């Protein structure tokens, strides 16, 4: 490492971290903790544990992933894989969430996973670990926003088609662009407004979706049997004969896994959350737990209310979930139900841009992106430039949909793979293989003796789904049906290696440490510790 470079973040973390975080005045200690990580408090701390939960809950947005990926589930395994797959995926994902909660409690930074890797890796590898994790998180963040907003654009176009709207790829891209601009404008207003919008999002995602589920089950003319919902297998992908039913089922769990992503948002908002060492891990765990329950209810409500598999998998409306709504409620009622879902997905996309912008801001703050993006608007205290960077990237990533029928599936795979790789790298580095450094800095939330077993399970599971989601979902494979997710991941990995050894290793040292700030920070923490021991 260049001797003139800022000292490694990991060196400055000590057992005093936990003491500072557990100080009775949690909100005051947030600024101290951030300073110990080497940063000034530039963003406004206005969020509580409720908002921390709300942003991850809104980005997971069970109605977003299930509604927009419902067709994939029907064709790749059918109702049995969708319902049982949801239970299995949710169970395994909770291990990832628990391990992530442990780490964010100790290192509550907007940088999220790449800061965790920097702290938990051995000093020699700390910058490289942070760089790899950061770019995979960057890829996943951009991919998940694209998938959310493009899925919403497609759903809006399909609903509009009930009234005579003619769907074309350029028109869907136009709707996609309009939704992104809306999300960008909302995100430039300020954190207080986003807090109010966050609480509304929690309400509509819970009460609104619950109401739709109850109405579906109550009004459906006929219902599928429990056997049809939980034990029926269908293969419309072509892989059942070419490979095996197990292959089809594995590709079908993408519906559930794509849905339960984005819960790192609570970590990226940590610098705007009061008592982040406690609130952020609560947000991570609760968002996954509550989404598991609500998502299962929404999914099985749709499956029980189908008026026929064939008419749903090849829907007259062009979209399976919309077809179920129209079959049960009629065209007007179906449009009303779809409007609630559209509102939920729009909020999901808006908060995904929020999360993206904080990660991109932190990444540029540490010189992995252009320094021009390291800017916070003085009036709103929002990183406006990275808000619009997130909007631009999400627009560009959707453009391949103009020429590929499986572009959306590829985008969802890219989002899922990128995010989960970035989630598991710090978990594997600091919790699964070597907990010595983590034990010295762990925060108020930790799993104790269950920490390492949980981390090992989480690591193994993410390796498994990374392989699965690189597989093609439609047979035969050609330029139109190829899963481009491994191509995108490969390009990012190649860029990481070339850029690191070519130039980045000379100036990227992970989460930065300002010498003067560190001095006064440690002086202050030393005084706190001295008073504590007196």
UniProtKB/TrEMBL annotation:
Q: Name one GO molecular function term.
A: transmembrane transporter activity
Write out the ranges of the annotated region (Disordered).
1-24
Q: Which InterPro entries match?
A: AA/rel_permease1
CC terms in the record's Gene Ontology section: membrane
Question: What residue range is the signal peptide?
Answer: none
Q: Could you list the residue ranges that cross the membrane?
A: 53-74, 86-108, 128-161, 173-194, 200-218, 279-304, 336-355, 387-408, 414-433, 454-475, 481-503
* Identification of the protein by name: Amino acid/polyamine transporter I
User: What's the source species for this entry?
Assistant: Rhodotorula toruloides
